[in-house]
Amino acid sequence: MRDVSARLLENERIGPRLCLLRLEAPEIAARALPGQFVAVRAAEGFFPLLRRPMSICAVEDSSLLLLVKVVGVGTRLLYEAEPGAHLHLLGPLGRPFEVEGDFEVAVLFGGGVGVAPLVFLERELRRRGRRVCTLLGARTASELVLRHLEDPFVATEDGSAGLRGTVLDLWRIRLQGHIRGRMKWFSCGPLAMLRALAWESQAGGWEHEVALETPMGCGFGVCQGCVVPLRGPRPRYGLACMEGPVFKAQEVNWDALGL
Amino acid sequence: MPLASEAAPAVRTEVDLGRGLRLKNRVLVASGTFAYADTVGELVDVSRLGGVVTKAISLEPREGNPPPRIVEVPGGLLNAIGLANVGARAFVRDKLPRLRQLDTAIVVNVVGFCVEDYVRLVRFLDEHEGIDAYEVNLSCPNVKEGGACFADDPMMTRQVVRALRPVTDRHLMIKLSPNVARIGQIARICEEEGADSVSLINTLVGMAVDVRTRRPKLANVTGGYSGPAIKPVALAKVWEAYRAVRIPIIGIGGIMSAEDALEFLLVGAQAVQVGTGTFVIPDLAVRIVEGMEAYARSEGLRDIGELVGALRI
Predict the structure, then answer these.
(1) Residue of chain B nearest A221, judged by CA positions
(2) Exposed, middle or buried: residue B5 (CB in 10 Å: 0-12, 13-18, 19+)?
(3) Residues of B in Cβ contact (< 8 Å) with A214
(4) Per-block average pLDDT, block size 10, for chain B (313 residues)?
(5) B140 assigned to active site
């Protein structure tokens, strides 16, 4: 974990509320693993105050790609940042996806900006010679981020691209029953999507890791704000920044998560 | 380093706050913002700090409040962590051995839900080496008094300090809440009952609402407000306490820079705690230590303590 000042090399505005930042951060790029994140300061001063946790979308040489969706003041500043600007990044943070293990096909599910960590993951899995199948969902075509993925299956809620429906519909209609070999699922996206996928994978008996997004204060385990309710012999809270953001889907107490 | 600063006489940074609490400088990290100094890794050189105040420790482990526990608001954040901690036994077994190896003062923040809890907890911790002081956290409900918060009530504050004083020879620092009518009166009660210092302020009670869902943004409904926005409140409370007591005051509240820390010294604080700022800049407290020394050199001070209460009115 390093606290670095990273130069913004490129800011590709994909849509009115979505951009892809390329940042020069060799110390973090050298250590980062798929599923990990960085905590980004959107401004030099203390307004907005907290860093924004951002999944590492990809590592290319010594640079990081971060996918940013504008949701508030901090992400708006990141969207408007121009190349040459310097941003403070803390990372790599958190527990990565487990890419080792006894499976033959990796099935990746991304929803909205939840696609971000899957780009990094897909590349790492392919580099290791794994078979990968990627399913991507969004509300509408303009919110789909496809360019960095290899031939994903697509669904949109409004039907403007791919199947009309959710990634789970996409799974059931187009893919279920067509995949041969032991699967492992990896998913990232809105809570409702992850919850539905967790039930599906549990019913199917497939190994499944989810990357969760939670409100976060610090990113390195001191504030204890980012807890996720976990199941087990003793129900407890796990810190998303230290034990996560990647959790085993069956370990998460989905009923207790969110308001 | 420029030659001029090498030639300048060293500035005295140490301070003795009494009853065994000696700090190498006047900057500590606040409770609940540094865990047990076990997650910051190489980000912070802990030996550069005056001290570390641990996460609040209770007799039994606590999972804390359900999420969401934290929300950003203008000028700061609201938190409702709910005193999540490993509990006293796991603390002395798993955390204290590492903490006491650190070359800095260790202040253990203690919390209870009745007077007897505090007494049992401090008795238990007193059997273990490596603790320089206790910071007594009174911002919790007294379950034997209908859930009223200890810190908000002068009489309950008095009961806790009175019960603890005979139990330990270690330094007792009482952490005061700003959510009271007269903080000076409560500080004086702590002094009368034998407290060695008071630290202030704890967070302000705050709330935020999502108008779309009409729900509070924290699962706990209300939380503690911290960050730069509360610094003016904290300075005024420290100033009030400074005029009320002779025991040392440790200033806390929205400190984000050396200049902020110096303001607290000028209104009467002997030392400060850096809290929420650490979330944003992990080594902020170390940067503040360096900034205060640079200021003292530029002002030609021999001891940073010359600034304490040096407010010109």
Answers:
(1) B39
(2) exposed
(3) 67-68
(4) 58 97 98 96 95 97 95 96 97 97 98 97 97 96 87 96 98 97 97 98 97 96 97 98 98 98 98 98 98 96 97 95
(5) yes
